[in-house]
TrEMBL record:
PROSITE patterns: EPHD (PS51805), ZF_RING_2 (PS50089)
InterPro entries documented for this protein: EPHD (IPR034732), PHD-type_Zinc_Finger (IPR051188), PHD_PHF7/G2E3-like (IPR059102), Znf_FYVE_PHD (IPR011011), Znf_RING (IPR001841), Znf_RING/FYVE/PHD (IPR013083)
GO molecular function: ligase activity; zinc ion binding
Domain annotation PHD-type: ranges: 1-65
Lineage, top ranks: Eukaryota, Metazoa, Chordata, Craniata, Vertebrata
Protein name: G2E3 ligase
Keyword terms, alphabetized: Ligase, Metal-binding, Zinc, Zinc-finger
Gene Ontology CC terms: nucleus
Source organism (scientific name): Hylia prasina (green hylia)
Signal sequence, start to end: none
Length: 219
């Protein structure tokens, strides 16, 4: 039954177009009742869509994505707490904030990278709160790795990790073969953010430049 259901999902997805890139094969539908927007997972950041990687794994289009509700910011320092570059003067899809101290502002991309490195030690980089902060970030679509912080295990997390130098995609498109890897570009090697046991070239799994992480089919 599981195989049959999977085939049905694939057939249905083949008939749907992504509202972001307009190509066919969009398998994700906004879970808001009455909304029929569909999109590819790699396209989600470009379309400001949110996928919640916990519980029911719900996905939302830009119009129905959860929004942070915060009080006016105590300070006027419009810089990212993580990279120290400028952020927007209000919270948005790209600019997020800590719901506890409400003073920490950070780029979505910066807090996503921190979450993947910090793992189970993920907390606000400003006030160090963990539980409410972590739940807020998960609700807003930040993905968390289920392992100890990378600085404790001395293992790097991310596409530049070369502990497994092989592409495990069903069809590897790299001219240099599955063993070939480059530091940047389409032949950059990504590891599964959950198990790190399988890898893929960026192009072989259609990962966009704004993709923050990748998970293998097993996970």
């Amino acid at each position: 039954f599981l195989v049959k259901d999977t085939r049905d999902i694939i057939r249905q997805a083949a008939k749907k177009s992504c509202f972001i890139c307009y190509k066919m094969g969009a398998s994700i539908t906004c879970c808001q009742t009455g909304c029929d927007r569909t999109f590819h997972l790699p396209c989600a950041p470009d379309g400001q869509c949110v996928t919640q990687y916990f519980g029911a794994y719900r996905s939302f289009c830009w119009e129905h994505s959860p929004q942070q509700t915060l009080q006016p910011r105590p300070s006027q320092d419009n810089t990212c707490t993580i990279c120290l570059d400028a952020v927007e003067d209000k919270v948005s899809y790209k600019t997020m904030a800590c719901p506890v101290c409400q003073d920490a502002r950070f780029h979505r991309q910066c807090i996503q990278r921190l979450a993947l490195h910090a793992g189970i030690g993920f907390r606000c980089p400003c006030c160090l709160n963990q539980e409410p902060f972590m739940m807020e970030m998960l609700t807003m679509g930040i993905r968390l790795s289920k392992r100890p912080p990378s600085w404790e295990s001395d293992q790097e997390v991310g596409p530049s990790d070369q502990r497994r130098g092989r592409c495990d995609a069903t069809t590897c498109l790299c001219p240099g073969g599955r063993e070939h890897t480059e530091a940047y570009g389409p032949w950059q090697l990504w590891l599964c953010s959950s198990c790190t046991a399988e890898g893929t070239h960026q192009h072989c799994s259609s990962l966009g430049n704004s993709t923050y992480s990748w998970e293998c089919n097993t996970c």
